[in-house]
Design goal:
The structure is a single chain. The chain is mainly alpha-helical. The chain is about 80% helix and about 0% strand. It is built from 13 helices and no strands. It has helices spanning about 1-25, 30-65, 65-85, 90-100, 100-115, 120-135, 140-145, 150-175, 180-205, 215-245, 245-250, 255-265, 275-295. Helix 3 (about 65-85) packs antiparallel against helix 8 (about 150-175). The radius of gyration is 19 Å and the shape is globular. The two termini are about 20 Å apart.
């Protein structure tokens, strides 16, 4: 059993490191370009594991390419590009805390689009977690709230969370029809092509393609493509297979904590009182939204 928790902690650490590496890389690389590099590296790495599975399932995936492209657009293209865009304007700690809001956002979208019903505790949890994010982006200031003087980076990160929540809904509806690694390879290929077009239009044509490839920047880019996009995913899937998605998903709440420690060590970012209190509200609210659902559905949750 300890191996399962070792796998899940490796995944959490590597997922958290994405914020640190992304913050470093975005100092030199535009966000859509960084997302393109990330998917290109992940695509090349995954070719080693998924070629046969992809070849076997290719007819099925081509027939259902629209569903897969929807997942690629929301999870492979928009989510990382928006995360990296947000890191140009906000701290890694803020970004990781806002990302912890994902289960609550997914619940709201499930209610709006799937008419899924939820308990009173879960509704309270959504309100509490959104209140925590609002407290963070206003820095606990009523004046900022009244003047709508929000940090644009936090709002962009919130948009990234919404994109990932849509991705999660699509996975719940369509993901079980496709082999995991073959479909991921297919989505990475489509996502990389889309990012190539978007990066060219939004960043390369207006600003050129000049990048100062220092060792720090190159290492950060390599990290984003190999560790969170591939190795963390493999470790996470292994943990889910061993202990189930319900137990594993609890550990996702550690991402803001691990990110805060990494940000202090590697970037010199110290957690403020607003981040601490807002983060506590977010994690408490997320716990309420997921606890009741886990009790009702047990191990049926999608990993």
């Amino acid at each position: 059993m300890w191996k399962a928790y070792a796998f899940v902690m490796v995944a959490i650490i590597l997922f958290s490191g994405n914020f640190i590496a992304g913050k470093v890389a975005t100092e030199e690389i535009a966000p859509f370009t960084l997302a393109w590099f990330r998917t290109l590296i992940a695509l090349l790495v995954l070719l080693v594991f998924a070629r046969q599975e992809f070849k076997y399932a290719r007819p099925l995936m081509l027939k259902n390419w629209k569903a897969l492209y929807g997942m690629a657009l929301t999870g492979v293209v928009l989510f990382p590009a928006l995360v990296y865009t947000s890191l140009n304007y906000t701290t890694t700690i803020n970004a990781s805390i806002v990302e912890a809001l994902t289960p609550s956002v997914a619940m709201v979208l499930s209610f709006l689009f799937l008419r899924e019903r939820f308990s009173g505790l879960q509704v309270v949890g959504v309100i509490v977690s959104f209140s925590g994010v609002l407290y963070i982006i206003t820095q606990g200031s009523l004046e900022v709230l009244l003047e709508l003087g929000f940090n644009i980076g936090d709002l962009i990160m919130l948009t990234a969370v919404i994109s990932w929540a849509f991705y999660s809904l699509l996975v719940n509806n369509h993901g079980s029809r496709f082999p995991m690694y073959g479909s991921l390879l297919f989505m990475l290929a489509m996502g990389n092509g889309t990012l190539l077009v978007l990066a060219a239009i939004l960043e390369w044509i207006p600003d050129g393609f000049a990048i100062d490839w220092s060792a720090k920047v190159a290492g950060s880019v390599l990290y984003t493509g190999v560790f969170p996009a591939v190795i963390a995913l493999l470790a996470w899937n292994q943990a889910v297979a061993m202990i189930g998605p319900s137990k594993a998903s609890v550990f996702l709440n550690l991402i803001p904590v691990v990110t805060a420690i990494m940000a202090l060590v590697f970037l010199g970012e110290a957690m403020t009182s607003a981040q601490f209190l807002g983060g506590a509200l977010v994690l408490g609210g997320v716990y309420m939204t997921t606890r009741n659902k886990r009790q009702k559905k047990g191990e049926k949750a999608n990993p």
